[in-house]
Amino acid sequence: MKNISKALIVCIFLFSALTLTAQITDTVWISSLDLSLATTGWGEKGINRSCMGNPIRLNGKEYKRGFGTHAPSLLYIKLDGYVQRFHATVGVDDEEKNSTGSVTFSIYGDGELLCKTSTLVSGGVSEEINTNIVGIDTLLLAVDGTADGINYDHADWANAYILVKKGRPFSISRPMEPAYILTPRAPATPRINGPKIYGTRPGHDFIYRIPATGNKPMKFSVKGLPKGLTVNKTTGIITGKTAESGRFETIITVKNDVGETSRKFTIVAGKQIALTPPLGWNSWNCFACAIDQEKVMAAADAMEKSGLADYGWSYINIDDCWMIQSESDDPVVGGAPRDENSNMRTNKKFPDIKALTDYIHSKGLKAGIYSGPGPRTCAGYTACYQHEDADALQFAKWGFDYLKYDWCDYERIAKDHSLPELKKPYIVMRDALEKCGRDIVYSLCQYGMGDVWRWGAEVGGNCWRTTGDITDNWNSVEAIGFGQAGLEYYSGPGHWNDPDMLVVGKVGWGPDLHPTNLSPNEQYTHISLWALLNSPLLIGCDMTQLDDFTFSLLTNSEVLDINQDPLGMQAARISKEEGLEIWARNLEDGSKAVGLFNRGMRQEQIVLKRSILDIPGDYIVRDVWKQEDIGSLGDSYAAVVPAHGVKLLRIYKQ
Ligand code: GLA
User: Fold this and answer.
1) How many CA atoms lie within 13 A of 350 on its CB side?
2) What is the per-residue pLDDT for 24?
């Protein structure tokens, strides 16, 4: 008996000791968590592997365990409170040793930054992380790209583990606020939306659909139209050609069963078009090369039926992959790139491109096309090199109203990136467009090389991309959007900075689409900032699958009014304190549009001081998204702004 109880005591002691030890030293490997809940910029979510499925290697050393990912990447882990430390060795995987990958690794505990590495680069050193995480409820492991974009950013959390005292950490999806709609419904009475000023060139086809919300049917009339232009009373589509040049102050009137409204609409017939930033849709961010003629027609239908066209959205732009890919064996896209007269041919996914533009125009909408100065486009399809005049004429004959002209493959033609070489191909196409006899918005796409904003207007650009390609995550939208500070001097009527297309709604760059990875707050930031920046607004989602929230983001008439303001003054950053930024711009009516942005991970109060706006007298503060006055400005106005969120205001005189 004695022996038995002795043994029992020993067992209990051993058991307790073991349990205690296990409690203190339990090691939970990050790679044992459900990594499918992580987000990554590219490739696999590597379980004990790199994002390309190779063994994890940093600085020549191979690691058995770890999480291989690609910037930007987020992994949220729920801890049980009894967790002690997080450990990892981090860096850019050796599979990109000779590339230009560069990343930072950050760890957040309940929204607070706990530690951040220096910038770690391809072939460079790795860093050890060993952080105390006692008392933290939610841990976030984040990898961010740097200013050079996310190419080659293969990032490893090697040998990554959590030391646990009790309980078991588990990964969770990114915590996100539910989608909340701020935009009020449009009233039943008629309201005229869209730009207040519009440019055309004398002698060219004119097409403009008056955007108006309210009960349908409506009756439209316009007083003071220049000779040659007429309005269709039932559709509100103005067409024709004006031979005269000059400034025509017209008055549009719209009536329906419950009311009538009128608004001034200035038509300027002269040299300049795109007097306000183009509003429309582009096929790339949703379909990329999975685009075809039916999808473009469906987009035009959706723009009309959803009601987007009633807010001024008007361009339906085809991006890459409509032409022949001569190297391809696929009979759908392969074949001879040009016909016997050297005219560019479409591939079989676009059987009748003229019928397509006619269809788009029949709705009063406009059509856009894509090409580039090189022999090929970015996706390897036929482009304009050495056929510029003929191609510009062809685009005009087909009835296109917008040309996105993408540098890409011209890289192998250009001698270097000197200014004359960067400008050259854009001048060639500008001259070709000038002779083509049609108003075609000329959109330069060369990702900002040679500070294109300084000379984009000089080479005829109506807008120019200031950055590389956007993707649907905070890292990309934040870097691009807030990176526009200082470019405000170069944007104005007829020539706009273009920080790339919108990534709200269902996007995907290919046949498979997914809801944007931006949270609702981030989407408000994206649209507010792009509106303040005078950016061309090109919807990048599948408009046939618009949900109510996305629709509300795209149809706030007061937000769009900021973007379309006739003064065309791009917002400047007027204050920056850590992640809290204030951006402001003057509007034509003497008011100011102001964005209070919180780039941080926690809700913050942002104070707008009257002194930085330099406005004497009594001013009213208006919440633009809610379309509601909040009160008078006083010496300052303070708003609580959610993480990654915005408060968009208009400050106007009483
Ligand atoms: C580049 C552009 C994109 C898109 C693709 C098409 O990447 O920046 O916007 O047009 O080419 O291949």
Assistant:
1) 24
2) 56
Same structural domain, 390 and 507: yes
Q: Which is the catalytic residue, given 292, 406, 409, 472?
A: 406
**pTM of the complete model:** 0.89
How far apart are the CA of 272 and the centre of ligand 1, in A? 26
403 Cα: distance to centroid of ligand 1 (angstroms) = 13
Here the CATH number for the domain that contains residue 514 is 3.20.20.70
Number of domains in the chain: 4
Mutate to test the pocket of ligand 1, among 378, 446, 467, 480 (most ligand atoms within 8 A of CB): 378
Task: Report pLDDT digits (tens) over 367-390.
Answer: 999 999 999 999 999 999 999 999
Q: Does residue 319 have its Cβ closer than 6 Å to ligand 1?
A: yes
pLDDT in tens, 553-583: 999 999 999 999 999 999 999 999 988 999 9
Residue 495, classed as helix, strand or coil, is strand
469 is catalytic: yes
More confident residue, 113 or 32: 32
**Domain membership of residue 396 as a residue range:** 280-563
Helix axes 388-398, 419-434, angle to 10 degrees: 50
Same domain, 92 and 65: yes
User: Which of 514, 544, 563 finishes a domain?
Assistant: 563
Residues 62, 363: Cα–Cα separation, whole Å:
61
From 215, 244, 267, give the residue that closes a domain. 267
Helix (H, G, I), strand (E, B) or coil at 583: strand
Which residue among the candidates 110, 469, 547, 623 is catalytic per the annotation? 469
